[in-house]
From TrEMBL:
Its main location: nucleus. The lineage of its organism: Eukaryota, Metazoa, Chordata, Craniata, Vertebrata. GO terms for biological process: apoptotic process; negative regulation of apoptotic process. SUPFAM superfamilies: ARM repeat (SSF48371). Pfam families: API5. This is Apoptosis inhibitor 5. InterPro entries: API5, ARM-like, ARM-type_fold. GO terms for molecular function: RNA binding. One of its GO terms (cellular component) is nucleus. Belongs to the API5 family.
Length: 527
């Protein structure tokens, strides 16, 4: 015979009045548990009554939890929400991992209010027993359905950082790191980024040793022991994103040597063959920027001379020779070389940083003819730079506030940063012997507002593709500034001031590609 509303209220009354003798009224509690088999009204009451007396009837614990779970899967959303809201009452002792496991599975709901209810319930039991709750979450991440795994990882990446220190103790954080390393054995690109966000925020890893452990975790994912296949967008994407995750971890004590070495030995030789994983991304510039950002943190390098030579060779490719002159001293009709300012800034900066470790490279390791060729290219590039710097300063002179926020002026500010950076670095290399003492802030890195249109020597950034002007001056301008010189055309990155591919969450959704299966289970890689 079905349990009625009256039966439920009667049984509730018996248990409420029993006080210390609750355990003697097992039959009354069984009636409440059986209420889940009734109609909507009976189910709603059962959802509230079952958890209220749950702890007094351990022999009926399994039946009670299973009954509540039936309500969590009911067709009526209001019954589901009520049942989910009460789930934390079942989270006692050994039941906590089980309840956390159940709640984690319930994250797959598409009902917003229900999803928020599950999140609130998980946070609630986190505060009771963080380690037990994490046990349930990681159980589903390692073994659950893809949708559950995805949402559980997102829960960790957004909620862990909000929990206080008395919940996220040292032991709990160490457990998170240990379990995350297990999950990392087989991850998609998006999962990798989210999990790195989880572990990077752990207080226990905010030490030199902790950051080094995080770098090791990224190195495993980056496959630095394998040769690069430049034609495979997945392989290129993996390297870019792993490098981007490692970058904030590098410091004078946590070195970028393995990444810088890999870029010099495997990426630079294949620079022009790299296949971009994203259509709008300038893959060559992306790679060069990452290399430049890492280079200050490079430690002792086994093949320093060979890697410097590769950087030097690549730099020569982007620094053209001046056009040949005909007999009357004018440029020939051949097309003027393009000055790739954005690329040269990155390469010069990286060369300058590594050059500090082998300051006699240009004097003793480069033959005289090649060095002469390099200096001719440097001089030509420097002449073109001076023209652009003057033009940009004139264009920005007197502009402040909102006037600098127009798209056109933003481009000019960024371009001025790039050209000034290159100018400073070239001057260092013109010293005899070459100097590596100047410091510049890479053009895409944040600078103080006061430096945006610096009065004398502003720092540098990028200008959009083809954003330069062609003012005609004569090649003798270095001797006579009043004579007009015909500079080469300049080229800045088209993504000027908008270098945020690596800052938009890394791997993007929906491309159907990702990290290949690293463990026994392949998860259908997605980004």
């Amino acid at each position: 015979m079905a349990v009625t509303i009256e039966d439920l209220y009667r049984s509730y009354g018996i248990l409420a009045d029993a006080k210390d003798n609750l355990s003697q009224h097992k039959d009354a509690y069984q009636v409440i548990v059986d209420g889940v088999k009734g109609g909507p009204k009976e189910k709603r009451l059962a959802a509230q009554f079952i958890p209220k007396f749950f702890s007094s009837f351990p022999e009926l614990a399994d039946a009670a939890i299973n009954a509540q779970l039936d309500l969590c899967e009911d067709e009526d959303v209001s019954i589901r929400r009520q049942a989910i809201k009460e789930l934390p009452h079942f989270a006692t002792g050994d039941n906590i991992p089980r309840v956390a496991d159940i709640l984690t599975q319930l994250l797959q709901t598409d009902d917003t209010a229900e999803f928020n209810q599950v999140n609130a319930a998980l946070i609630s039991i986190f505060k009771m027993d963080a380690r037990g709750t994490l046990g349930g979450l990681f159980s589903q991440i390692l073994q659950g359905e893809d949708i559950v795994r995805e949402r559980a990882i997102k829960f960790l990446s957004t909620k862990l950082k909000t929990l206080p220190e008395d919940v996220m103790t040292k032991e709990v954080e160490e457990y998170v790191f240990a379990e995350t390393k297990k999950v990392m054995e087989d991850v998609t690109g998006e999962e990798f980024v989210l999990l790195m966000r989880v572990v990077s925020g752990l207080r226990v890893l905010q030490t030199v040793n902790g950051r080094q452990q995080l770098v090791e975790l990224v190195v495993e994912q980056a496959f630095l022991e394998q040769a690069l296949n430049p034609a495979d967008p997945d392989t290129v994407d993996r390297l870019l994103q792993c490098t981007r995750q490692a970058l904030p971890l590098f410091s004078k004590n946590v070195h970028s040597t393995r990444f810088v070495t890999y870029f010099c030995e495997h990426v630079l030789p294949n620079l022009s063959a790299l296949t971009s994983p994203v259509a709008e991304l300038d893959i060559q510039l992306e790679v060069l920027k990452l290399l430049a950002e890492m280079s200050p943190f490079c430690g002792d390098m086994e093949k320093l001379e060979a890697n410097l030579n590769m950087l030097f060779t690549k730099l020569l490719e982007f620094m053209p020779l001046p056009p040949e002159e005909v007999e009357n001293g004018e440029n020939s009709a051949s097309e003027e070389p393009k000055l790739q300012f954005s690329y040269v800034e990155c390469l010069l900066y990286s060369f300058h940083q590594l050059g500090k470790k082998l300051p006699d490279f240009l004097l003793d390791k480069v033959d005289a003819e090649r060095l002469k060729d390099f200096k001719i290219r440097l001089q030509y590039f420097a002449r073109g730079l001076q023209v652009y710097i003057r033009q940009l300063r004139v264009a920005l002179q007197g502009k402040t506030g909102d006037a600098l926020k127009t798209e056109e002026n933003k481009i000019k500010v960024v371009a001025l940063k790039i050209t000034n950076n290159i100018n400073v670095l070239i001057k260092d290399l013109f010293h005899n012997p070459p100097s590596y003492k100047s410091t510049v802030t890479l053009s895409w890195k944040p600078v103080q507002k006061a430096e945006a249109v610096a009065p004398k020597r502003p720092s540098t950034e990028e200008m959009g593709s083809g954003g330069s002007t062609k003012k005609q001056i004569s090649p003798q301008s270095r001797r006579d500034a009043r004579q007009i010189y015909n500079p080469p055309s300049g080229k800045y990155s088209a993504s000027i001031g908008n270098f945020n591919y690596e800052q938009r969450g890394g791997f993007r959704g929906g491309r159907g590609r990702g990290f290949g299966g690293r463990g026994n289970r392949s998860r259908g890689r997605i980004y």
